Task: structure prediction
Amino acid sequence: MRGLFITFEGVEGSGKSSQIVRLEARLRAEGIDVVCVREPGGEPMAERIRALLLDTASDLEARAELLLFLAARAQVVSRVVAPAVARGAVVLGDRHIDSSVAYQGWGRQQDVAAIRSLNAFAVGGVLPDRTLLLDLPPETGLARQMDRNRMEAEPAEFHVRVREGFLAEARQSPERFRVIDASGSPAEVEERIHSALRDLAPALGRATG
Result:
């Protein structure tokens, strides 16, 4: 039986990574095969690209940045995500195609339609079954960050555009997206996530029941 690909998106500091850990634990407790990946990264070559992309010393032209993100995405989808879903696992992705639209499209103010097309080429038809957008004001998320990488160090107006981009993508694909209020305690956000996954219960067992 085919597995599921669930992605987590959001502005910096929205709590994606910690919520993935919580959901992973809950699914594993139900005996579900879970694979977690992060973007950029999640595979040896993609991790090498990640180091370059997030290094504050990297001086990348906007198009070069986009293409590096796409290269890392193509690598992890081909080597990790697609095989895991094919064997029936649940893959939890920390960022995916929508981050490129939000960050490189809205944030960097590049051609969004072109980025969507390039994303389609990079993933080769492997798309999320559900995308959880953890939404909160960028200033709230950035205040949670102790050390800032190259993306987090961008000015406030960049992060505002990124949030607008995520919300625009959610409006465009309501069947795939669920917008989660990321304010409140981690436990409260966790319960909102479980509610947003209940229609996938046949594949997720009692973990979201």
Q: What stands out?
A: The longest strand covers residues 4-10. The two ends are 21 Å apart (CA to CA). The chain is about 55% helix and 15% strand.
